[in-house]
Amino acid sequence: MKARYMMAGILAFAAVMILMLLAFNAANAGPTVIVGARVPKNQRVDLSKIDHGTWNALLAKYVDQKGLVDYSAWKASAVDGKLLDQYLRQLSSSNGVGTESEKLAFWINAYNAVTIAGILREYPTTSIRNHTAKLVGYNIWKDLHLLVGDSEYSLDQMEHEILRKTGEPRIHFAIVCASIGCPPLRNEAYVAERIDEQLTANAQAFFADASKFTFDESSKSIALSPILDWFGQDFGGTQAEQLRRIVDWLPDESARKLSQSGQARISFLEYDWSLNDKK
């Protein structure tokens, strides 16, 4: 009987602590920043009607071949700032109806465009991590929301609740968190007609970068970006499966053979959170 009372007391204490933590988080959450616009239902359109041309032009103007962004020039241009806002409002007009390819292109573009908008809001800055408060204050991944239809989507929700649930691991070589450690930002928009080609090209470029992938044939060891550690399950349930999933994107023939066998020794490289800023 005494043990039962003790257990009841422990459970009650735990419940109180959980409620206090939830209240603390609610009270100390950062201010929500909303981009896009509220669009009436009768004005919403299928994904095939969303024109990514404005986003494509902005990327071509401000992103170089290495994926670095000229944030300074972009922020200085009131005209192009308004064009980005207009593009985000256009994304808001989606009714979500479309093919899987259209959905992939839409949400990858949305993630990257909202990230750029969030960084431009804070610029000058040296890292997105400067704007990711853990307990108190604004967290760009949680508090920056894009309106689409009747819902708001944070960057975290776009990544974890939409894009990762497509089962397409190459999204990790396409969505860019404004950091050098990320895959390079393409200087063109994603489009449904070319999405498979674009994602494969991204994956190949990612593993061709020595800061994301190295192979030591003598020790049969592969060093990978921590992206493959954080999101390894998206590539397969075991290390061997994950290696076999990336084999076609590796630049080195010996690495491809070793990965095909699933026997490579794996380590993970350091992640560079420095801003992907073209200076």
What does this molecule look like?
With 279 residues, the protein is mainly α. Helices cover 46% and strands 9% of the residues. The chain is built from eleven helices and six strands. The chain has helices at 2-28, 53-62, 71-76, 78-92, 100-122, 140-143, 155-163, 195-207, 227-230, 239-246, 253-261; strands at 33-35, 144-148, 151-154, 213-216, 221-224, 265-268. It has a three-stranded mixed sheet with strand order 1-2-3. A hairpin with a 4-residue loop joins strand 4 (213-216) and strand 5.
Largest sheet: spatial strand order: 1-2-3
**Share of helical residues:** 40-55%
Largest sheet: 3 strands, mixed
Q: Beta fraction of the residues?
A: 5-15%
Instruction: Specify Rg, calculated over alpha carbons.
Output: 21 Å
Shape: globular
Terminal-residue CA separation: 70 Å
Q: Which class of secondary structure composition applies to the elements?
A: mainly alpha
Compressed to H and E, one letter per element, the order equals HEHHHHHEEHHEEHHHE
Q: How many runs of DSSP E, i.e. beta strands?
A: 6
Count of DSSP-assigned helices: 11
Whole-number average pLDDT? 91
Oligomer: single chain
Unreliable segments (pLDDT under 50, ≥5 consecutive)?
12-28
Protein traits:
279 residues; mainly alpha; three-stranded mixed sheet; 6 strands; globular
Which helices and strands occur, and which strands form pairs?
Layout: H1 2-28, E1 33-35, H2 53-62, H3 71-76, H4 78-92, H5 100-122, H6 140-143, E2 144-148, E3 151-154, H7 155-163, H8 195-207, E4 213-216, E5 221-224, H9 227-230, H10 239-246, H11 253-261, E6 265-268
Helix pairs in contact: 4-5, 5-7, 10-11
